[in-house]
């Protein structure tokens, strides 16, 4: 029984990765609002990523955004900007790590958990966009530090806002549609 | 909006189409990584030239990719301007000499040949892989692409995820369009005429149904795949997989040679930069 559950979970991870990547691609392409700084956008996709990762875990979250982001770079800029694509993948993994803690499928998520989730995502986005991505650009692409750190800080802010608003709304709405864990009692 | 999506595979009768997907994938990844690291102008120009020649042979028409190319060039220029604004004397720092055109190195805004040369290299780095990427996208069948990923060592589950993504992008796009039209018919304004907040609310009204229907889709597809025993064995075969032919080996040898030249240039230049100012 346990074994069977595991295999169906891994299939779900494969499918969630694929469909998630497709949705992230479409959202990045159509529902992105430019911030005025080149190559940084307010991406609705990051909010969706938060829900996807919270539902299907770190592997699906990380791979889905990695695939979706690189496909989007492919058709928008001609070739993927690898440092940012990889960083985005790491964000997906980090957001997926709190799957069990957040427990979206177990009924409405409490306010305290949402506050904790938001603090966590702001830290994750900070590490990713202010520390990892620009440093990668300086090391790998040899771009001027001032420019890439400005892009990094902008991305940190817009991505955190996207997860905080859209991600939180999605998680709340989705978890409300799930039956509360332990809400059914056996009649005596 | 439509014109952005015209990039896609069509069957053309060229030798590039007949190469196996794995060869093209290895070639693209290898060249884009070496081009990402190197700052040798001669090498970048060489690769750009080769990829333009290949692009010519691929029989892709300019008007098919014109829109995408314009966007890419616009972004490249924006980036170059931004690099100049934030670091106008970065070239001088890198190359260690200063041949001034305007101003002096003591001022913040100055113009030197070193800076122009550095930004020219950046421009090459932004665009040299574009013809290769377009060739890769437009001559590789998406189903074969997944098979190629598996062939070069990516686990078949991940390859299958990529296949699902490529297969469902058009569907998700259609869903997006249908939902968007339906919500606009109900009075949600999402065009540029509306205020930002109204637009944001309109966007939320579209992505909600889109995301919920996608989550349903995940359930349906994974159940269908489970019924067909996906993931039962350690390996799987691919209907679209192509065996390597003579031309594939030839192409791979050429790619290896180009990469070796790139690596050799690191030694010759004593670093990643080729410095003509010495």
From TrEMBL, chain A:
Superkingdom of source: Bacteria
Q: Where is the protein situated, by its record's location annotation?
A: Cell membrane
Mark the transmembrane ranges. Answer: 12-32, 44-69, 81-102, 114-133, 153-175
GO CC, alphabetical: plasma membrane
Which keywords has UniProt assigned to this entry? Cell membrane, Membrane, Transmembrane, Transmembrane helix
Q: Which family does it belong to?
A: Belongs to the UPF0397 family.
* NCBIfam families listed in its UniProt record: PRK13661.1 (NF010182)
**Protein name from the UniProt record:** UPF0397 protein GB992_09715
TrEMBL record, chain B:
Q: Which residues lie in coiled coils?
A: none
Record has Transmembrane helix as a keyword: yes
One short Pfam family name for this protein? CbiQ
Cell compartment(s), UniProt: Membrane
Q: Which UniProt keywords apply?
A: Membrane, Transmembrane, Transmembrane helix
What's its membrane topology? Multi-pass membrane protein
Q: Which InterPro entries match?
A: ABC/ECF_trnsptr_transmembrane (IPR003339)
Q: Note the superkingdom of the native organism.
A: Bacteria
> Is the Transit peptide keyword given for this protein?
no
Which cellular components does GO assign to this protein? plasma membrane
Transmembrane feature ranges = 25-55, 67-87, 116-137, 249-268
The record's PANTHER family line, in alphabetical order, gives: ABC TRANSPORTER PERMEASE, PROTEIN ABCI12, CHLOROPLASTIC
Q: Can you name this protein? A: Energy-coupling factor transporter transmembrane protein EcfT
Look up and give the organism this protein is from.
Furfurilactobacillus rossiae
